[in-house]
Design brief:
Structural class: alpha/beta
CATH architecture of the domain at 21-210: 3-Layer(aba) Sandwich
Helix content: 25-40%
Radius of gyration: 24 Å
Strand content: 15-25%
Number of helices: 19
CATH class of the domain at 21-210: Alpha Beta
CATH topology of the domain at 21-210: Rossmann fold
Shape: globular
Distance between the termini: 49 Å
Length: 567
């Protein structure tokens, strides 16, 4: 590590173990993946901090162990999960759903919620994967947090009682706390064709669960609470700059469920920056729309003056200003990432990417001219209306990028590498593409092969293609209903072997993955109210089919999508 050495590596262990064990609500906060990944998740760290701010709560962390046997113990006091009042899962990715079942088993608990009455711990789950579609895992979870932790958890703990009957407690919380979903109080029915017929409450609870969010994120410092070695963002102090994104890419669930887009003030971010550089000189700015932050150039300048090495989770090609490129260069960045997502202008218009070829090529020139040697390009395949001509356009665009890259690199007398990342498109809930089916695996493999063959003779270009099979499972879980619980349970029994699981099950997975949904169909996640009008998503879907684009979110209380007109 260049610059200062890391100070106080675990500078803020919150002091949970110093609280009296028996005098508090005891919460085991679990990330359903390994420590290296979990401690790189800023949302997980934020919930850990929030819970330990309560005087009456003791929160400890746990992760999926690397070993396959033995109990799961918390980091702070090495206690078993079964000793806690609440086991709270922070879930960012659908692929971790199966891990939740494994963790519950290793904790010695029944995996099904209906078999865990009093006095078993209450099993809670939150995170973006849960408030997009919790239905596929609802059989195993007592209740879900549908919204941002800062806005929901304080009210939840106003009503939670450790010694009360679990069902009575859950009913009280479901009735009184906005943003809490208790699956046991709802029933579903299905039509003969397998589609959802109804979703209705069986108790005195809300018909719809309203997503709750923090309206002013400048009231909270969302940054690393613990800085560690041996994590994905090794020795980096992460600062959340924004939530949501104004650009409205039609494939991106984060761009819709986190509406309205919100940005932190420069004054607050500078305070976070000062906190970070007292620990390490590696500062990572996190957010879906960092380059849209007002005064982002000023923040970079402040960081440089203070001697920090700044990195960004993402920057749009059309917003790659000289100041941002300079900040990346001064931070020692060796690889800059651009996400064209589509190779042709036609497909970029379909997905509402808002980028032209000239903007992409110009960004490449700026990066290389600044002395950053390597570039990573993100593309998707299997997008709605995609043809092989669009796939070939990815090859053509990459070759154009290589020529610009080469011309600029020669001036620097240093030629780096281009990594082309190919990712199958997975339709997600609460996006304009929630009705489309996923492209089939054979077609995706053919498209990957076409790109690989088209670029195999291009020097210094490497192809990194995501697995269509894994994308298939992701689509199954993200688009599924309560019936998918059977597949998750079977996959857990098969130690995560999805091939064996799908072959041995009577459930038709293709019904969920490949089928195009009707626009008037009741969707498994329709009971969640994110504030976005379904009619708005339909219009965006129809515009996509006509290759028409939409303007970015104006972020000034317009009435288009419906979020800003809610009370």
């Amino acid at each position: 590590m260049s610059g200062r050495s890391l100070k106080n590596v675990q500078y803020s262990e919150i002091g949970a173990v110093r609280k009296q064990w028996k005098e508090h609500i005891r919460v085991a906060l679990v990330y359903p993946n390994i420590y290296k990944i979990g401690m790189s998740n800023l949302g997980f760290q934020t919930v850990y901090d929030i819970l330990n701010r309560f005087d009456n709560i003791l929160c400890e962390r746990a992760f999926l162990p690397d070993n396959i046997t033995g109990p799961i113990l918390t980091k702070e006091s090495a206690r078993r999960l079964s000793e806690f009042d609440i086991i709270a899962f922070s879930v960012s990715f659908e692929s971790d759903f199966v891990n939740i079942l494994s963790i519950l088993k290793r904790a010695g608990l029944p995996i099904k919620a209906r078999e865990r009455g009093t006095p078993y711990p209450l099993v809670l789950a939150g995170g973006v994967a849960c408030f997009i579609n919790p239905e596929t895992i609802c059989e195993f979870i007592d209740c879900f947090v549908i919204g941002e932790a800062e806005a929901v958890l304080p009210n939840f703990f106003d009503y939670f009682e450790t010694d009360a009957d679990k069902e009575e407690t859950l009913l009280k919380i479901a009735k009184q706390v906005t943003g809490i979903y208790v699956p046991a109080f709802y029933e579903t029915s299905y039509k003969k064709d397998g589609t959802l017929n109804s979703f209705y409450p069986t108790a005195d609870v809300p018909e719809k669960i309203r997503y709750v969010y923090l309206k002013d994120i400048s009231t909270e410092q969302t940054c690393s609470k613990i800085v560690c070695d041996n994590t994905t963002f090794d020795r980096s102090f992460l600062i959340e700059v924004s939530r949501g994104c104004p650009h409205g890419c039609r494939f991106c669930s984060a761009g819709f469920v986190y509406r309205p887009p919100r940005f932190r003030s420069i004054a607050l971010l500078e305070k976070c920056l000062d906190k970070g550089i007292s620990i390490t000189d590696r500062i990572g700015l996190v957010g879906a729309a960092i380059s849209d932050l007002p005064e982002i150039a000023r923040l970079c300048s402040i960081a440089q003056i203070k001697g920090a090495q700044i990195s960004f989770s993402s920057v749009r090609a059309d917003a790659l200003s000289d100041e941002l490129v300079t900040a990346l260069k001064k931070s020692g960045t060796k690889t800059a990432t651009i996400a064209p997502d589509g190779g042709s202008q036609r497909i970029r218009d379909v997905i509402n990417k808002g980028l032209t070829e000239d903007q992409i090529l110009s960004a490449v020139e700026k990066i290389v001219e600044a002395g950053i040697p390597n570039i990573k390009l993100y593309f998707m395949i299997g997008l709605p209306t995609e043809t092989m001509e669009d796939v070939e356009s990815t090859v053509v665009l990459c070759k154009k990028i290589k020529r610009r890259f080469l011309d600029s690199s020669r001036q620097k007398k240093r030629i780096g590498h281009i990594t082309v990342s190919i990712n199958p498109f997975v339709p997600k809930p609460f996006t304009p593409f929630q009705w489309v089916g996923m492209d089939d695996i054979l077609s995706l493999k053919k498209k990957i092969s076409h790109i690989k063959n088209g670029l195999k003779k291009v020097a210094n270009v490497r192809i990194d293609a995501a697995s269509p099979n894994k994308s298939y499972i992701q689509a199954l879980i993200s688009r599924g209903d309560r019936k998918i619980a059977e597949l998750l349970s079977l996959a857990d029994s098969n130690n995560g072997n999805w091939g064996k699981t799908l072959k041995s099950s009577t459930i038709n997975a293709e019904f969920y993955v490949y089928r195009k949904k009707s626009l008037d169909e009741l969707l498994p996640w329709d009971f969640i109210d994110h504030g976005i009008k379904k009619s708005y998503l339909k219009k965006e879907y129809q515009k996509a089919l006509l290759q028409k684009t939409s303007a970015p979110c104006p972020m000034n209380s317009c009435k288009k999508c419906g979020v800003c007109i809610q009370e």
